[in-house]
Amino acid sequence: MTKVGLHQYPPMEQVIFGKPAGLALREEAERKGAQRVFLIASRTLNTTTDEIDKIRSALGERYAGTFDQVPQHTTRDSVVEAAGHAAQAKADLVVAIGGGSVVDAAKIVLMCLEHSITDASGLDGFELVSTPQGPRPGPFRNPKVRMIAIPSTLSGGEYNAGTLVTDTRRKLKQIFVHPLMMPISIILDPAITVHTPRTLWLGSGTRAMDHGIEAVCSPRGNPLVESVCLRGLRYLYDGLLAYADNADSLEARQMCQLGSWLSAFGLQCRVPMGASHAIGHVLGGTCDVPHYLCTAVMMPSVLKYNKPATGAAQKLLAEAWHEPEADASELFARFIARLGLPTRLADVGVTEDRFGLIGNNAMLSVFTPANPRPIKGPDDVVEILRLAA
What we know:
two-stranded antiparallel sheet; 10 strands; 6-stranded parallel beta sheet; 49% helix; 2 domains; Iron-containing alcohol dehydrogenase; oxidoreductase; alpha/beta; 14 helices
């Protein structure tokens, strides 16, 4: 029986690796003719290291300003504030330098600039919503200002056109998406990651693996996505273990960066994610679990729940992780333990009395209907949570 499918290439121009971040960014600004480059940076990188100073110096007269007040989980208030500073600076290129929250902020800042959004409620109605006909994006216009990402962690959100922003009024993390929120370029410099805390690096690496795992297991994947993601998952498996043995190794760090890039290939080509993403977003937005720890505590249980529908795909995962005869769920759980990351929901402060709320909120996610094993209601989400308790 022949297969039927579709592959969509992302609206991103290039990934640059092996060059110092400042040099690569200056060359990109020159290539795009940008005269007012506005940085949205990690506060830690900006105030405790010289990495942002080096980038400002490399940009020279093209540098227009810096905002470094993005909190974890990227709140609406912070992105509206960042957009105000970018507008005042007359930014014609936005650059995210930092982890996933900073990258998410830069993406939605493009849309705040385009639509002149100046308060948090201005984003109402633009969020991605789940409908019986499938996900429905908000009515964003094409942004005139684009962005470049220089990631300092491995979560991989820079490789897709969506962003996660928390509505603090409801403690709900929402998705906003537009094809041109995808960075035009991504710059991978392992040297800028040496300041990233160990647990954040390892945890964000497992979050990057989430992208690859859910793409390989998705019924809407294709041979190209499967092949690229499996290679990325091996890079991450080997690279994270090598980093755990020697955090000073730039080679191990670059291996992890390449793995994050390849593992995100399905996500950037619009292969839908599943239950791990749906639940992880709720754990962050509703229960304040750091985003980079969600995969560590949830993925073994999601794999276990999905095994009846994804047995063949899980064999490919085990093969990528060098143990083709192993159970993928158990293998991933052992891997998490070897990295020294939390392995259960209780380890990150989520107790069973929250499971009902998590289940209800997860049903609002556009990823829940895309899970390879159907999730019919909150009780099915609670079943997965109990596996991870």
